């Protein structure tokens, strides 16, 4: 009797079944009870309801208010409730749930053929989520660490150059993180919360001051004679090395990202990537031009002073690229 009644479990299970479901009297084990219940119309309705839920299941990233643990639990339960046991069918349902989010959809699709079980599916997607959390998104807060010195690109709102533009200074400061080294990063002409790619045109806005990282052009009237003069266009020079000054209130602010160690690489910009930053000048000596000089952001050992304080200079230059032109971009907070 124990063999068939499972120590009383069978009677307990039968007592929990809704009375509207009529059970044959000859049921004497749990397997037979399960098979009978599966043939009932209510089970068919149950499966169809869950299949509709499966078909409408949508993944919501955690940064948009989603909960990955709840999503995985729901997905797993829907597989069970709809008797979707084949891993290929499970993968198709999972991929469909990612359809509104191109990054997750694409990355999961790339590795689908290597997934052979539910555990592997969950592990693979969790790795994709972890990788996505390191992607720098439009509106994120970042820091730029100078690779050669380990010092952060910094600006102080109320501290200005005493030469050149006399705008807010930019320099490489402490090797320890400082709030003055926080910058918002934006894609120019992009959408807020878009992923940022290499080759993107971007701008950096200082988190504390709200001013933007850039360079500054100005016009100057040059007189050749009593009756002849001409307007020339120039850029303010850095205080010590006579390169192009970099400040935190420039009138040219559009930077381009390149991977310094992977030529022609195109992909998502991620935390701890090593990059070069360049800016294309909008003017030459004669005026506005489409073929302006491209210069790169550099910090070096040259210093300048303001009062009794000494700062490590940051400039733009058009010389050959070197290790002083490499910056490590660190994600402080994803948008």
Automatic annotation (TrEMBL):
Positions of the MIR domain: 133-188
SUPFAM superfamilies: MIR domain
Membrane-spanning segments: none
InterPro entries referenced in this protein's UniProt entry, alphabetically: MIR_dom_sf, MIR_motif
Keywords: Repeat
PROSITE patterns: MIR
Protein known as: MIR domain-containing protein
């Amino acid at each position: 009797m124990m063999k068939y009644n499972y120590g009383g479990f069978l009677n307990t299970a039968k007592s929990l079944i809704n009375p509207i479901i009529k059970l044959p009297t000859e049921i004497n084990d749990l397997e037979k009870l399960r098979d009978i219940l599966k043939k009932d119309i209510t089970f068919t309705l149950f499966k169809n309801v869950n299949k509709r839920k499966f078909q409408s299941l949508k993944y919501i990233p955690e940064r948009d208010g989603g909960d990955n643990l709840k999503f995985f639990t729901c997905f797993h339960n829907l597989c069970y409730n709809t008797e979707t046991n084949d891993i290929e069918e499970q993968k198709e349902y999972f991929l469909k749930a990612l359809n509104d989010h191109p990054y997750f959809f694409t990355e999961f699709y790339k590795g689908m053929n290597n997934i052979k079980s539910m555990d592997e599916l969950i592990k693979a997607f969790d790795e994709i989520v972890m990788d996505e959390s390191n992607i720098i998104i439009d509106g994120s807060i970042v820091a730029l660490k100078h690779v050669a010195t380990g010092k952060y690109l910094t600006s102080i709102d109320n501290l200005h150059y005493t030469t050149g533009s006399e705008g807010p200074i930019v320099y490489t400061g402490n090797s320890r993180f400082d709030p003055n080294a926080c910058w918002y990063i934006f894609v120019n002409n992009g959408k807020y919360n878009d992923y940022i790619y290499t080759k993107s045109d971007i701008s950096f806005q200082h988190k504390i001051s709200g001013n933007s990282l850039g360079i500054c052009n100005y016009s100057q009237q040059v007189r050749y004679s009593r009756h002849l003069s001409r307007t020339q266009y120039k850029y303010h020079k850095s205080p010590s090395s006579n390169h192009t000054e970099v400040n935190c209130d420039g009138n040219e602010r559009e930077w381009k990202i390149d991977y310094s160690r992977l030529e022609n690489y195109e992909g998502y910009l991620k935390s701890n990537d090593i990059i070069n930053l360049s800016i294309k000048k909008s003017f030459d000596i004669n005026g506005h031009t489409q073929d302006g000089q491209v210069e790169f952001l550099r910090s070096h050992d040259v210093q300048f002073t303001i009062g009794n304080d000494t700062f490590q200079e940051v400039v733009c230059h058009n010389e050959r690229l070197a290790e002083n032109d490499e910056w490590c971009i660190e994600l402080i907070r994803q948008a």
